[in-house]
Amino acid sequence: MKVLETNSDIGSIRIYNDTMVIYLDNRIGDLPSKVVICESENKEEQKLILGELKDVNNELENRYFAIKTIAYLRDYDCGENPIYAFKPGRYHSVLYENATFLIEWIDNDI
Question: What is the pTM of this model?
Answer without folding.
Answer: 0.89
